[in-house]
Amino acid sequence: MSAAVFHNARILTMDSRRPRAAALLVRDGAVVSCDPAAAPADAASYDCGGALLLPAFIDAHCHVLAAAAALRSVDCTPRPASSISDIQSQLRQAAAAAREGAWIRAFGYDETRLAERRHPTCRDLDEAVPHLPVRLLHRSGHAVVLNTRAMLLAGIAIDTEEPPGGCIERFHDSGEPTGLLLEMNDVVDRAVPPLPYAELADAVGDVSRRFIANGVTAVVDATHTNGAAEWETFARLQDGGSLPLGVTLMEALAHAGEMPDAPRGRLRRGHVKIMLSEVGGGLAPDEAALRRAVLEMHRAGRGVAIHAVEERAVGAAIDAIEAAVGETGAQECGHRIEHAGLLPRGASERLARLGVRVVTQPAFVYEQGDRYLEQVPRDKHARLYPSGDLLHAGVCVAASSDAPVSTVGVPLALRAAMDRRTETGAVLGAGQAVSFEQAAAMWTRAAARAAGYTDRGTIAPGMSADFVLMDDRDGDLRLLETYVRGERVYAAD
Questions:
Q1: CATH architecture classification, 1-56+458-493
Q2: Strands (E), 48-185
């Protein structure tokens, strides 16, 4: 397509200079103008049927390879597996079809949604599959349960020391590991053979199609182990056609500087990822080590993306960025905090002053809100994923799925940001609800800013013509079509 006019649309440009338009002129994959005075003679004409047209979405924090692996894993999410007995049944079926010696990969259990209201143990998994190694990932991605065979292969035994930031749960009577490991995926991953490349490429293709069907045309992969090897894998997937998305690849702190600075096709280097977690009553890494790491990256002009969920971790992340800025001056590095699940009091104003972006997951309110209502003290509910307070303070708030952690699509995530309803219909932090335009901006303009994109996120002359059409006229939100560089790449049935 050389030129095309998209008309009869309600266009939200997400550009503050011209927020709305009724028609869009695209030429050679880029936006030429909004509300063109006249269509060029060579332009094709597309009637949008009165649909809502807005920039294509950017998922500012996800895990592409993990999402692909989850598609090829045994589904133990709450819908098919509401009890440990269901999990055992799912595992038995998978084992019956597996080849000798193969690992059984399973994903998605949530102990709060199981009838037994507890984590499975190695004994539960052994009862279902004693002869093959089993790895069962928690819905959050931060916990894993192994059966006895898998623990043996991973080197987890009664005398195994916990790595920094990790935790091995043990049976009280014997001290033996229960199979539940917290923040120890790196240890387990070294024992689990990777998917064959052909299978991985096929699964990444499926994941890409799911993103596009939700209007997402660019993603930020926030995996904390990314380095040169992952860059080459993503480049190979891109070159082979399995990964048609724009991808910004975060770089692990331990691998900082390994990836090339120059983009390769649609692949770009992003922020330096730092994992910060509360384990065993402390922070890992501790505050001093965190400050050193942030200062080093800040001096090098690299933005950091700090994984911080709990209140203490979020506070420590803000302190570390504030210290780096104070020591070196207000250099703009675009630092980010990932998740910020429970915000300390007064944090919104500090984040705004420092120019720190917050990358949140609106779908968590829907998918995990009932768990938060049950487990988090009532006086803290209004500070859980508080998009409203952050936006009011002037913080750049970007949205993401954290896929494969979240399984819902962008339309439902937009709704969750707007009504703060959980899966059972309860409301979590009603005061944090945002408008549709604010929610959409989190997935477009703000996500582009958080990711460092300058050619997408708004509809304005010179920007890439990536956009979506949505139907919102019956009160629901439904994705109709997705366009990349002016070409339709998805249409709903």
A1: Roll (2.30)
A2: 52-55, 57-62, 74-75, 104-109, 134-138, 143-146, 167-170, 177-182
List the structure tokens of 302: 């690299």
Residue of 412, 411, 353, 352 lying closest to 386 (CA atoms): 352
Length of the chain: 493
Mean pLDDT for back-to-back runs of 10 residues, the chain (493 residues): 90 96 95 86 93 98 96 95 98 96 96 96 98 96 96 96 92 96 93 94 98 98 97 98 98 97 97 91 93 97 97 98 90 92 97 97 96 95 97 98 93 97 97 98 98 97 97 91 98 92
Q: Which pLDDT does position 407 carry in this prediction?
A: 83
* Every domain of the chain and the residues it spans: 1-56+458-493, 73-189, 196-456
Q: Which of 247, 182, 180, 254 is nearest to 217 (CA)?
A: 247
CA 437 to chain centre: 21
Architecture of domain 73-189: Roll (3.10)
Burial 213-246 (b: 16+ CB within 10 A, else e): bbbbbbbbbbbbbbbeebbebbbebbeeebbbbb
3-state class (DSSP) for residue 47? strand
The radius of gyration of the chain from alpha carbons, rounded to an integer in Å, stands at: 23
70 phi and psi angles, rounded to 5 deg: -60, -35
Q: 276 — phi, psi (to 5°)?
A: -130, 115
- Domain 73-189 shares a fold with domain 196-456: no
Residue 252 per-residue DSSP state: E
Q: Given this model, what pLDDT does residue 279 score? A: 77
What pLDDT, on a 0 to 100 scale, did the predictor assign at position 473? Answer: 86
How far apart (Å, rounded) are the C-alpha atoms in residues 439 and 32? Answer: 26
> pLDDT at position 328, please?
87
Query: CA quadruple 237, 238, 240, 241: dihedral positive or negative?
Result: positive
Task: Select from 153, 116, 159 the least CA-distant residue to 134.
Answer: 153
Strand partners, 220: 248
pLDDT reported for residue 330:
67
Cβ atoms of residues 381 and 428 within 8 Å: yes
What pLDDT, on a 0 to 100 scale, did the predictor assign at position 124?
Answer: 98
Residue 477: DSSP 8-state: -
Architecture of the domain whose range is 196-456: Alpha-Beta Barrel (3.20)
Distance, in Å, from the CA atom of 307 to the CA atom of 176, rounded to the nearest integer, reads 31
What does each C-alpha distance from 389 to 318, 423, 457, 485 come to in angstroms?
16, 23, 23, 35
Q: Find where tokens 């950017």 sit.
A: 58
Beta-carbon contacts of 282 under 8 Å, excluding residues fewer than 6 positions away, are none
User: What is d(CA 459, CA 449) in angstroms, rounded to the nearest whole number?
Assistant: 14
Q: What is the pLDDT of residue 164?
A: 85
Whether pTM > 0.85 for this model: the answer is: yes
